UniProtKB/TrEMBL annotation:
It comes from the Eukaryota. This is S-acyltransferase. GO terms for molecular function: protein-cysteine S-palmitoyltransferase activity. Keywords: Acyltransferase, ANK repeat, Membrane, Repeat, Transferase, Transmembrane, Transmembrane helix. Residues 263-391 form the Palmitoyltransferase DHHC domain. It comes from Carya illinoinensis. InterPro entries: Ankyrin_rpt, Palmitoyltrfase_DHHC. ANK repeats lie at residues 56-88, 89-121. Its EC number is 2.3.1.225. GO terms for cellular component: Golgi membrane. The chain crosses the membrane at residues 168-192, 204-223, 309-332, 352-374. Belongs to the DHHC palmitoyltransferase family.
């Protein structure tokens, strides 16, 4: 590994040997060129000051942010570089990242930072948001203003409504919708006084739908309350597997066991996380095999609750399909021979408003649940998470030697599905923990 570092940057090793204050120059140049491994090496081996400002008052973090090297930013933040430092122009690293419009650099800085950096003004009185929109970086400006809004909601008088709402998510709303639908189904479809008495077959299907809805509610509670696979942080009570403890103990200074997958550093949780995990800004934790944060269950979907989430989706689809079929059958068979001036739609809406309201909401839920179930099922069959699917370009481990997309976790449809159904997740340790496998040998 050390050999690799030297081979990578002969220029920098020369810089170290010729300069009187080598680390001061080297850290800035390393940050400017995104030489993360080298930067880590000079900090670990020569105790170089990685937070020292240059003549313009810019630290290596300013340079990495300006050049958009997200991994270098991660390393510097991981090592506690000062995010709030303003250079002679009054710019923080976030100002520079916003000027260049680099989304990933801004994301890393914002997730690891605080509100002060978002509202900090440079000497001309501009905040990062204003600079991003002035330069025409619409995505970055939108992201930054959303982050600013989230922070102010958490702080201002709105805390009681907006702040809390963001924390709780929409789970209580979804819970109420399911309960209301169940009541409507029983009252206005199954036992409606103005409909004919249910036949044995329809009754059986109807009550099956009600039972499935109750099981769905149990699964809903399970996947929203379960730990989605939070990665342990330093100081957390030891309860997980040894491999995770080993990873926590890896020191960035002992480079021989560190192969330099810098995207694994979480500057917020201060951990080296497993490859497929991601930091969730809503839960403020890193989640193993992170799929997505689902506001409707108010929880992340990850390694430990993905199967529950998938079962919940399947049950949701099945229940709403069955209930819709029973509802349509009940109302349709009731429609009598109508006088010419009355349409069947008018008749149904006037006679069975509860049943119609139920069917409308139920069909919307059926469509949403079907789309989600199908997309999750295809991803499970390919053993890829929603996050990886959406951001494949960002992840080096999802690229083959030829630079094209290659998923190393795809063990074939049959094994992917079998692993998921039996264990709830696929065992990626051999691929996800390469440094540890080497140490063990
Ligand atoms: Zn994290």
């Amino acid at each position: 590994m050390q050999f690799q570092v030297y081979q990578l940057s002969p220029l920098f090793t020369t810089l170290i040997s010729v300069s009187k204050k080598p680390q001061l120059l080297a850290v800035h140049v390393a940050a400017q060129y995104g030489q993360t491994a080298f930067l880590n090496h000079v900090v670990a081996k020569y105790q170089a000051d990685f937070d020292v400002p240059d003549n313009e008052g810019r630290s290596p973090l300013h340079w990495a942010a300006y050049k958009g090297f997200a991994d270098t930013i991660r390393l510097l933040l991981f090592r506690d570089a000062w995010q709030g430092r303003q250079d002679k122009e009054g710019c923080t690293p976030l100002h520079w990242a916003a000027i260049r419009g680099n989304v990933e650099a801004c994301t890393v800085l914002v997730h690891a930072g605080m509100k002060q950096e978002l509202v900090a003004k440079d000497n001309a009185g501009f905040t990062p948001v204003q600079l991003a929109s002035d330069k025409g970086h619409r995505h970055v400006a939108l992201f930054l203003s959303n982050a600013q809004r989230t922070h102010s909601n958490n702080n201002c008088v709105n805390k009681l409504c907006h702040g809390k709402m963001a924390d709780i998510g929409y789970a209580p709303i979804l819970f109420c919708i399911i309960i209301i639908l169940m009541v409507l189904f029983i009252n206005s479809v199954l036992a409606a006084p103005n409909l004919t008495k249910v036949t044995a077959v329809v009754g059986l299907w109807g009550w099956t739908a009600v039972s499935l809805a109750i099981v769905s509610l149990i699964m809903f509670y399970k996947c929203s309350s379960k730990d989605p696979g939070y990665v342990k942080r330093q100081g957390d009570v030891s309860s997980h597997k040894d491999t995770e403890d080993l990873l926590l103990n890896i020191d960035l200074d002992s480079s021989p066991i560190w192969t330099g997958n810098w995207s694994q550093l979480c500057p917020t949780c201060k951990i080296i996380r497993p490859v497929r995990s991601k930091h969730c800004p809503t839960c403020k934790r890193c989640v193993e095999q992170f799929d997505h944060h689902c506001p409707w269950i108010s929880n992340c979907v990850g390694k430990r609750n993905k199967r529950d989430f998938f079962v919940f989706l399947c049950l949701g689809t099945l229940t709403s399909l069955l209930a819709a079929a029973v509802g349509i059958q009940r109302i349709w068979t009731e429609i009598p021979v109508l006088p010419a001036e009355e349409t069947w739609i008018h008749h149904v809406v006037v006679r069975h408003p509860g049943g119609v309201a139920f069917l409308l909401v139920d069909i919307i839920i059926l469509l949403a649940a079907t789309i989600l179930t199908v997309s999750q099922a295809t991803q499970i069959a390919r053993n890829i998470t929603t996050n990886e699917f959406a951001n494949a370009i960002r992840y080096g481990y999802l690229r083959g030697p030829d630079g094209r997309f290659h998923n190393p976790y795809n063990h074939g449809c049959q094994k992917n599905c079998a692993d998921f159904l039996i264990r709830g997740y696929t065992d990626d340790d051999e691929i996800a923990w390469p440094p540890l496998q080497q140490v063990a040998r």
